Backbone:
């Protein structure tokens, strides 16, 4: 079996993460390894690495890695019930924030309009949107058996090259915020689509405003 570069990188990083598992000895004041923390970390990363060795696409690889790392998979009728509960919690948390919550089967889509998330032509999240993303993070941590696709979108104004870059930078900014809120990075997939997936008419100002957005797509982890 061939080991992917992603899987190999996980394996190679384990020693560096172990080095970070240090505590201070209360008697000597010297740093020492925490065997419990290191063992747990190695176990989680090891399981994730094994899971990442197979899978035909990003979703499949992430699911295998997360299940290998100890995240339980959903099955049967439990999938719909789990997503129902997560949707209800998101709707409560995001009421009146400008973020819409859409349900498509067992997929939940959060639409974050660009005009409330970023300044014009900027990939830096506006500070007044931090509490909204913090609320999203809180729900994602509670319902951790979901994959999170972060997709950036733009209108058709400007060059396609610029729009692709801007959409990817904005999606990355949102994903980075989630990571900093302790969301497992293995759950995340980031992509910039530029103007390729409009949801409104780019011929009007109102339509272009709707097309400038970052979407979070939440999907259940299943076997």
Residues:
């Amino acid at each position: 079996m061939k080991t992917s570069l992603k899987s190999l990188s996980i394996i190679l990083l384990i020693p560096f993460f172990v080095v970070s598992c240090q505590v201070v000895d209360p008697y000597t004041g010297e740093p020492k390894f925490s065997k419990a923390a290191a063992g747990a970390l190695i176990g989680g990363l090891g399981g994730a690495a094994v899971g990442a060795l197979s899978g035909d696409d990003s979703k499949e690889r992430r699911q295998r890695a997360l299940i290998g790392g100890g995240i339980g998979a959903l099955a049967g009728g439990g999938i719909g019930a789990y997503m129902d509960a997560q949707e209800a919690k998101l709707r409560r948390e995001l009421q009146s924030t400008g973020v819409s919550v859409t349900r498509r089967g067992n997929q939940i889509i959060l639409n974050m309009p660009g005009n409330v998330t970023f300044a014009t032509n900027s990939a830096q999240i506006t500070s007044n949107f931090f509490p909204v993303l913090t609320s999203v993070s809180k729900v994602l941590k509670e319902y951790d058996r979901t994959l999170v696709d972060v997709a950036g979108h733009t209108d058709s104004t400007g060059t396609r090259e610029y729009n692709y870059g801007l959409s990817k930078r904005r999606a990355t900014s949102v994903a980075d915020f989630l990571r900093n809120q302790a969301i497992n990075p293995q759950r995340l997939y980031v992509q910039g689509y530029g103007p390729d997936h409009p949801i409104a008419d780019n011929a009007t100002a109102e339509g272009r405003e709707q097309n400038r957005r970052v979407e979070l797509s939440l999907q259940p982890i299943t076997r």
About this structure: Strands lie at 22-24, 31-33, 100-104, 107-113, 146-153, 188-192, 213-220. The chain has two domains: 5-68, 77-220. The two ends are 21 Å apart (CA to CA).
